[in-house]
Design goal:
The chain has 181 residues and is an alpha/beta fold. 39% of the residues lie in helices and 17% in strands. Helix 1 packs parallel to helix 5. Bound molecules: zinc ion. The site of zinc ion has 6 residues, from helix 4.
Length: 181
């Protein structure tokens, strides 16, 4: 069963000017997806896929909702993009994601031949685009996406950090209550 009580997201969505379709604009879209994840009690990570300056896919982490370890924002966004394009190859697409992709998502992005990956904050534990490993640099693999990072990294990181902080506090409260009654 899901946790008994929820904790509200203290962060607000961002609305950058649509006339400036730059990294900040698209990462804001991914950030807003991450906030939606929080509102659904999911770890707040979001992703969008952009092709020719248009968002063609937009998703957030749904692992808890779907009870699927593979339901990460990037995987769901790549599936949407492939359906939209009618092709599993995403060479001309850019994946924006709030956190450095894990082994599964980095691997899937490379296999999908995503042209470029832009992420918010680095993940030294699980990140596979330079944080812990650099799968995109493996010379034996025949696709090497461009990788950039650091766009809105602080905001994207704060979202996840505060989420876990609040969840820990809530879990502590629940266990304290259980112990005293
Ligand atoms: Zn992942």
């Amino acid at each position: 069963m899901r946790n008994l009580m929820t904790f509200a997201c203290p962060f607000r969505r961002k609305y950058p000017l649509p006339s400036q379709k730059d990294d900040l604009f698209f990462m804001s879209m991914a950030y807003n997806e991450a906030i939606t994840a929080w509102e659904e009690e999911e770890v707040p990570i979001g992703a969008v896929i952009v092709r020719e300056q248009e968002v063609i896919a937009s998703a957030h982490n749904l692992a808890e909702t779907r009870k699927e370890a593979t339901a990460h924002a990037e995987i769901l966004a790549m599936a949407q993009a492939s359906r939209f394009l009618g092709d599993w190859r995403l060479n001309e697409s850019i994946l924006y994601v709030t956190k450095e992709p894990c082994p599964m998502c980095a691997g899937a992005a490379i296999l999908s031949r995503v042209g470029e990956i832009v992420f918010g904050f680095s993940d030294e534990k699980m990140g596979c685009l330079g944080g812990k490993l650099a799968l995109h640099q493996l010379l034996t693999w025949n696709h090497h996406p461009r990788v950039r990072f650091g766009i809105m990294s602080e905001e994207c990181y704060e979202l996840v950090r505060v989420f876990f902080e609040k969840r820990r506090k809530k879990d502590d409260n629940i266990s304290n209550t259980t112990m005293t009654h």
